[in-house]
Amino acid sequence: MIDTIDHQLIEVMQNGLPLVSRPYASIAQALDLSETEVISRLSQLKQRGLIKRLGVVVNHRRLGYRANAMVVFDIPDAKVKQMGKQISQFNFVNLCYLRPRHPDVWSYNLYCMIHGKTRDKVLQQLEQLIKACALSPFDYEVLFSRQCFKQRGASYFSQKNVKAEFEL
How far, CA to CA in Å, does 102 sit from each of 10, 105, 107, 109, 153? Predict the structure, then answer.
């Protein structure tokens, strides 16, 4: 169970942090709290598992990264965790995660995302990854994005009840 203040805090946070030098102070002011209390409450909500994480949603295209590829691999189950750890160490790999296979439909179980300014650059990085991690024996597909959809963080509560607004 959460109290009214935590509920308001989560509602505000699901809209994203304000783009100011001290976003938690801005949130604190809007909710009539101290900056320290906002940070403490967020930490407690995370520890209790009521929020999973705080992260950044980056608009890669606006930063000039127009070639975005999801690379999917079919890695034997006994090796998938080890391979995932190796792949995720590369600075050009933005995401790396395990997904269940769907027999007779989709055999891939390890996914990684590579963002690049050009398709050639992404393919060069993938080649480097395959060589360094000894991935050549495994089937894989490179799925380049064709369209960019809106990205956003988690939504815990209805947006119509958000009680705090920010002046940016």
Answer: 35, 6, 6, 9, 27
